[in-house]
Task: inverse folding
């Protein structure tokens, strides 16, 4: 318990120490600025109304009935107005409405300055989507600032909003931010939360406070919460406070920071995540065992993650990623979506990469942080890649890749002693580009020299040489068909068929040192004799479709098939023997006959036994706004007893303006059973949405492990920090693409 408290204190000490130093530097960099308003030239004001009178000797215009003024991006409407043409100030009465690009101001009486575009209004309402505000007195004090005294704001536009935030002083900056002091949130007429200082950028799509209650077989009853605090600029903090009756309390913080907010944009930006769960600690109602054992003793389970990016210039990028976890199952237990999406060993590295016109250079340092993983460390690796460079004005080209690496392979839990080797590798390629009619012919020779500091038996340094040669042949043909039709809604405006055939022959001589004597660190150490042919054929069908008033080129279909045939040669000479084979056939298909329909497929067929080595199929259908259907299939044969063979189905249907339903299914074809299913029901509450979700790991909704939760979501801020949902777009088991937003827990 003491250890956990110490860890939690350290998390917040580090987080707040970082923020204190960060913002102290920022505040010290501000200089006091004198706000001097430049003189503005006046423009004539044209007043329209049922009755308009101009009194030249008094420099005044009066108007009554359907008064309308359009002046410099400002539209003013009212029943009665008096305008001073010299000062360009106006007194407006009755149904006053002022429209500007950043918002709308309404009330019964307003004094408005057209020159400064400012005014004060009593009993006013402000509309600046997604915010709506009311106050006893409102002043437009700047080009993009409203000051509300004794006011209330909400994203609910009803006369009596479902919820509102009330404060003595509210500053509304349309399209930018909301600032309130001493604010209280009301749901209906009940106060539910107090904020000494409320700050919310309008561009953010996430609410400041989120709660998700629920129950789960693994967690018991739980309550997940995220509290967002906006600092300066783009810097913000999510404070996480969670409770699970079978696990106990957990705390964490996510810090999203940008060094530009401290006046140091060259230092980049990043995110730091920290999370500590006191499993079986204080507050645990029903203690549970760990996945790696049956112990129900108290144990702190932790994860720390840092990702930082620095753009030194448009072509040079620095990246740092740091991961530290208390055990290899903590992500599976507390961050299941993240675990399922990645399912890999967390990486720790620091790198700098520069991409110049004639070369790419990279220095990369990778180190293991957790002893229960087997990892190959790079301490460090330096790489330089020179793409094809034309040699003077000749048809000859040169490319090269050089790497220098200090490897150290550490085994999980030290079951084997570490393996260490230093390696320098250089690959050179010379090619010649020629044309023969429609064919592009590129013969080439390659050489690779590798120096090792040791072999498997840690003997002295030695060199390995490998040489090869080959030729690539490819072409490109296309034909345009004058087809213009909207039959079946296809919207076809000419068709262009593109065919790109390609073939290549390659041969690599037997390296001077066999792979069986080398420590295996990466694919460079696996080189063997190769001799074969690569074949590929790409077909693409394009058309032009209407996008607004323009025609834009789109791909309707794309199909690529490719394979590699390996010859078997006699050892020690150039003769061929029986036993040559295709090393699998790859099929890549993309179909988009309609904007609302897309199909993608990747299949690898093993020719040795005519079986599928891996494959995926994605199907997306959304013919109407009320229905979206996604389906995916993925097969991957990793080892004989560990294959992924799953089908996913995800459908969302809007029943009516108030209700929508979603269903997610994941079927394991290998076992012939449902692996997971999730049912969600969403109710529209005007400015809110409430979602009830039930997820079960299996085919029995009432007996298998389950999770049930209830989520409230403001429609103006739809993003949920607390990710529990399964969906095709988040982690499709049948997909080779992932588009995932960061989740905190679940």
Result:
């Amino acid at each position: 318990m003491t250890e956990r408290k110490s860890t939690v204190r350290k998390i917040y000490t580090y987080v707040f120490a970082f923020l204190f130093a960060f913002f102290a530097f920022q505040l010290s960099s501000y200089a006091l600025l004198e706000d001097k308003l430049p003189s503005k030239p006046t423009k004539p004001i044209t007043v329209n109304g049922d009755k308009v009178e101009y009194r030249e000797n008094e420099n005044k215009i009066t108007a009554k009935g359907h008064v309308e003024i359009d002046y410099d991006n400002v539209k003013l409407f009212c029943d009665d107005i008096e305008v001073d043409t010299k000062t360009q100030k106006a007194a407006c009465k009755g149904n006053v409405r002022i429209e500007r690009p950043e918002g709308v101001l309404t009330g019964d009486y307003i004094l408005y300055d057209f020159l400064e575009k400012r005014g004060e209004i009593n009993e006013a309402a402000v509309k600046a989507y997604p915010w709506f505000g009311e106050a006893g007195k409102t002043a437009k004090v700047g080009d993009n600032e409203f000051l509300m005294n004794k006011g209330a704001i909400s994203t609910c536009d009803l006369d009596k909003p479902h919820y509102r935030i009330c404060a003595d002083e509210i500053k509304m900056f349309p399209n930018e931010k909301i600032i309130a002091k001493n604010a209280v949130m009301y749901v209906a007429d009940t106060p539910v939360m107090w904020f000494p200082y409320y700050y919310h950028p309008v561009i953010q799509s996430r609410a400041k406070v989120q709660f998700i209650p629920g129950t789960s077989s693994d967690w018991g009853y739980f309550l997940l919460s995220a509290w967002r605090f906006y600092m300066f600029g783009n810097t913000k903090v999510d404070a996480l406070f969670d409770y699970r009756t079978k696990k106990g309390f957990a705390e964490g913080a996510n810090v999203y920071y940008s060094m530009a907010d401290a006046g140091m944009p060259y230092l980049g930006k990043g995110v730091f995540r920290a999370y500590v769960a006191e499993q079986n600690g204080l507050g645990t109602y029903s203690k549970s065992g760990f996945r790696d054992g049956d112990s129900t003793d108290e144990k702190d389970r932790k994860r720390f993650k840092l990702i930082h990016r620095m753009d030194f210039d448009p072509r040079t990028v620095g990246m740092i990623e740091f991961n530290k976890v208390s055990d290899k199952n903590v992500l599976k237990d507390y961050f299941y979506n993240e675990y399922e999406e990645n399912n890999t060993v967390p990486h720790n590295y620091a790198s700098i990469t520069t991409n110049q016109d004639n070369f790419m250079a990279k220095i990369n340092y990778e180190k293991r942080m957790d002893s229960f993983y087997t990892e190959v460390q790079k301490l460090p690796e330096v790489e330089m890649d020179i793409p094809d460079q034309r040699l003077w004005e000749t048809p000859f080209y040169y490319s090269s890749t050089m790497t220098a690496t200090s490897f150290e392979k550490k085994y999980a839990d030290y079951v084997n002693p570490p393996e260490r080797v230093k390696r320098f590798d250089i690959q050179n390629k010379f090619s010649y580009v020629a044309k023969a009619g429609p064919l592009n012919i590129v013969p080439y020779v390659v050489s690779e020299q590798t120096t090792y500091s040791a072999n498997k038996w840690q003997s002295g340094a030695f060199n390995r040489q490998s040489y090869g040669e080959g030729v690539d042949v490819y072409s490109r043909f296309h034909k345009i068909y004058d087809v213009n039709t909207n039959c079946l809604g296809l919207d076809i405006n000419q068709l262009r068929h593109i065919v790109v055939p390609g073939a290549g022959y390659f041969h690599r001589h037997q390296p001077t040192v066999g792979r069986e004597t080398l420590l295996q660190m990466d694919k460079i150490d696996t080189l063997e004799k190769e001799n074969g042919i690569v074949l590929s054929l790409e077909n693409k069908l394009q058309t032009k479709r209407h996008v607004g008033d323009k025609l834009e080129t789109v791909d309707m279909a794309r199909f690529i098939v490719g394979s590699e045939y390996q010859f078997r040669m006699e050892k020690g000479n150039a003769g061929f023997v029986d036993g040559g084979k295709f090393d699998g056939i790859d099929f890549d298909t993309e179909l988009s006959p309609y904007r609302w329909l897309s199909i993608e497929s990747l299949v690898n067929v093993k020719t040795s036994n005519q079986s599928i080595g891996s494959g995926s199929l994605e199907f997306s259908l959304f013919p109407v706004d009320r229905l979206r259907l996604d389906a995916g299939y993925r097969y991957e044969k990793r080892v004989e007893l560990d294959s992924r063979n799953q089908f996913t189905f995800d459908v969302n249907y809007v029943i009516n303006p108030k209700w929508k339903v979603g269903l997610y299914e994941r079927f394991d074809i290998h076992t012939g059973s449902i692996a997971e299913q999730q049912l969600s029901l969403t109710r529209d509450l005007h400015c809110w949405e409430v979602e009830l979700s039930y997820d079960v790991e299996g085919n029995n909704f009432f007996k298998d492990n389950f999770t049930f939760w209830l989520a409230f979501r403001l429609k103006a801020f739809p993003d949920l920090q607390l990710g529990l949902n399964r969906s095709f777009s988040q982690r499709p088991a049948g997909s080779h693409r992932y588009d995932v937003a960061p989740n905190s827990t679940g």
